[in-house]
Structure formats: C-alpha cells, structure tokens
Amino acid sequence: PICPLWEEARELEPYSEDQTCERAPRQRFACALCFCTHRSDMRTVSQSELAQHKSPGDIWMAVDGHVYDVSKFARLHPGGSQIIEQYAGQDVTGVFFELHRKDVLAKYAKLRVGSLEGAKEDGALGEVGAISAVPFAEIPAFQGQNSPYYRESHKRLLQAVRSFVQTELEPIAESADLSGEYPDLELRQKLGKSGMFGIRLGPGPWLKALGSLGIKIPGDVAPEDFDYFHEMMAHQEFGRLGRPGFIDSLGAGYGISVPAIFHFGSDEVKRTLGPQLLMGDKHSVLSISEPFAGSDVAALQATAEKTPDGKFYAVNGLKKWITEGMYADYFVTAVRTGKTGTPKDLSMLLVERGPGLETKQIKTTYSTCCGTCMVIMNNVKVPVGNLLGKEGNGFRQIMYNFNHERWIITTSLIGQGRQAVADTFMWARQRKIFGKSLIDQAVIRNKLAASAAALEGLQAFLETVTYDMCKTKGGAVGDRLAGPIALLKYQTTRACWNIADDCVQIFGGRGITRTGMGAKVEGFKNYVKYAAVYGGSEEIMAELAVRMAMRNFPAQAKL
Questions:
Q1: N-terminal to C-terminal alpha carbon distance within the chain
Q2: Residue 134: how many CB atoms within 10 A of its CB?
Q3: What are the phi and psi torsion angles at 336 (to 5°)?
Q4: pLDDT tens digit string along 85-103?
Q5: Residues 6+ apart with CB under 8 A from 484
Q6: pTM value?
C-alpha cells in the first residue's frame, strides 16, 4: 500500500518500490512526511535567509525546526493571506501550535524546503504508534502504574493498532466525516485483511478462522492469548480518532452482528459467509430497533412467515437507526415468527440485501458516513437456512448479544474521552490568554483535575468488569454480568457528560467546531449523548442494574 500522503508529495522525488517508511518501519509505503524529513538534498536554512522571504508571493516560515515555502499556499489559506504575510520570514512555532493540530504539518510536508539553522526540532509529530507521555493520554498501566491486567502482548497490540489508525485512518478521518461518504469496499477489505475487524469482535471462534485466512492478529498475538483486554484497547484506539460518525462507519454495526452469525448460524452459513465477513468482502449489521420499539425489544413488530412451500420466510416490517445499514450486505434481523404476543414469538434471521429490501439514510447529529438508516422490508424472501438458531429463541439471542454490545459502547466512549482529555491538556498548555498559558489559571486546572479523576475512575471500573469477563465462562454472556455492565455503561455516560462539558469550556469556540484544534472534543461531546441512548438508554441501564442486584438481596437483611 502507498501512504495516503504520498499523492501530495510525489513531486518531491521519484517513488521507489523499495522505499520503506522510517516512521513506521513495518509498513512498506512512501510516506510524504518521511520523504520530506529524510531527503538527502534537504538543506539548512539560516535565520537571515529565512528573514529574506517575507514578501507577498515569496513567503517562508519555520515551524518546529523545519522551513516551509508557503508562497502559493498563502492564497489558499482558510484565514486569508494576510495572516500568513504578517508572520512571513519568521519562526512561527508558538503561534502555529496555538492555531493548528500537528497533523497539518504532515498534510503539507511537501512545502518543506529545509531545516532551520540552530533550531531544535521538538518532535511534535512523534513516532508512529508511540506511547504518549502527555498526562492522562494513556491507560495508567502504560504510563508507569503497576497493573495485574496487562502483559507484553497487550502493549504490542496497542502499538500495532495505533500505527494502523495513525497511518491508514487519521489522514482520511476528517474528510470522510465532513463529506458523509460511506467507507468503500477497499477500506473495508483493508480493515478485514489487517485483522482490525476480527480483533474488535473479541475472543471467539473467529480468531482461529483469521489464521486459516492468512490474517495475523496485530502485534503477533496468538489467538489463544487474545483476551478482552486486547479487544478493549483496539476499541479505545479507534476511539482516539475522535470523530464518532467515522468511527462507527468502521464496524459499529458489523461488530455486534458477526458474533451472532458465528454463534447461531448454520454450519453452511459460517462456512460460506464467515470468511467473506472476516476478509471485509461482505458487511453485516444488527437490525433490531424499530419505530415501534427500542429498548422494549419484546414489542418488535416486524414479521416473518413461512411461504407455502416451506423453503422461505416472507419478511415484512421496518427497522430504524440501523448503524452502517446503508452499505450492509446482510442484516441480522429480529422478527416475530409466532402469534402468541409474547417474547417467545421472536426469532433472528440473516436477511440478505435483495428484492423487497430498501434502506433510507437517516440524518442524525453525527456524520452520515456511518450509514445510519431505516430498513424497509416488503415481502423479502429469506431462505429458511438463514434462521439463526431456532424459532422462538430470538429474545434470548438478543439478550445474549446485549452485554458485549454495551461493553463495546462503553469502551469506545472512554477511549474517545481519553483523547479529548489529552487534547485538552495539550491545548491548555499551548494556548496563551491574558499573558499566560491557560493551564496557569487555577480554574482551568480545577476542570482538568475533575475530568482526569472521572476518566481514571471509569477506566478502573472498566478494567474490573473486563477482568471479570476474562475469568467468566462465556465472557460477557450471562445474567450475572448484565447488572455490572449496565451499571458501567450508566456511570460512563453520566461521567463523560461532565468530562465533555469541562473540555468544551476549556477549548471555547474550538470545542464546538468540527474541524481544527478542538475537533475531537466536539466529536466526543456529541458521542456522549449517543452512548447514553443506544444499546439501552441510561434509564434502562439503571433499572436493569438495580433489578439484577435485588435478585440476590437477602430476605433477612434489615437496617
């Protein structure tokens, strides 16, 4: 593969098939940033030479030890050329990092003409996949805390997933999120063949299937060593993208539907469709919610009746708010196959996109790129072999899936929250107001402390529940973990609402802007309310947690 930045840098020098990116040595691509940084003909520019290039049409600037020719770019600058001309011929490192994310340096690496004499590069871009030293930017165990949960394989997987996210997804995240474009087949296949789909399904039979398809688990983790902590870190690394619409377009619906196919599908379905799903050649989503029923799944109205020849089900009904539905090939669909009016009527069918099935985009508060849609089924013929499990077991299967789904939502939200807190710490240190950095203001430090305390409390709760999942037969499945996971989700969405509020207040206007310095804070702020609704609303989570706790309330207990 070629680095996404290559197209912007190809004029620098001929591309060599043997070129290896020095910032990500395991990746064989031509990286614009590396080409620019490591070109043998890049020269040293003195302060006096830099100062000479300060006229309209001839503008050089220095940022982070590098000198850029922005003469032509000045005309295209979103803020106009005047601000560029104001700082022409100067080292603008401080001003630059008050206004721009470091990603911009990689995006415009082709404009670099040399290194500034005597300037020390502070390595703002960092090494691909590196562990950050920014306070609270990492799970505490990776910033020096002693922890019983993590092994070397967890660190390897974390850095492998982070490298993939930084090199393959970060460069396209903003444009995809803003344009609302669905991920194309090529991107989905890249996610499949890199193992990024498989590892976010968690421990299960699909992990060994990956090996038979020639797909390695990132970080060279053996399938038998892979646990829920590995999965947790994968979700959190994707969460660091900070744009929830784009994040959900990369497998939110897929990740909660494929396990149902592997657990309940027929051997024939698993043999034929399973590999296509893992490779990213086909895409499935979970299709349960309806205009008539959300958290109250027993009230679903979509129906499936067998045709007179007994070979098909005729499926009719509506499904709503189906994430990734616009580009899905298969829908793991809850339907009513009985007429008793009880949960025993429910069954699960694997419905393939075809005649009678239509999807319509639903515009929500985050990007349309995740394909949230209405699914309209009008006499869709589904082979009886696509029944998942047995008729009447649908309610149990939905409940079987819910614990893991809720844990995934929680994990992703905490990952997005960690990136938001890290960004806010960096912003507070970079931004100057009233003659000093934001972080020098006591009120700002108080907000940062409140956010960090809440974040680490959530991480500790998540790790406790995740450890329980690792040690429990069947993992997240089962009644005993339903209460703790519901309580975890409830506490996470409540606490993250406060974290988002503090982060937005510190970023100010940038915290409610979809691009620029506060883009990931703005995305996190939006996702908090999503997480509080889907997978089971906060109210349902609180009710479930208390009801499950009351099951074991000792009858003789008195105050």
A1: 67
A2: 13
A3: -100, 115
A4: 999 999 999 889 888 888 8
A5: 465, 468, 545
A6: 0.87
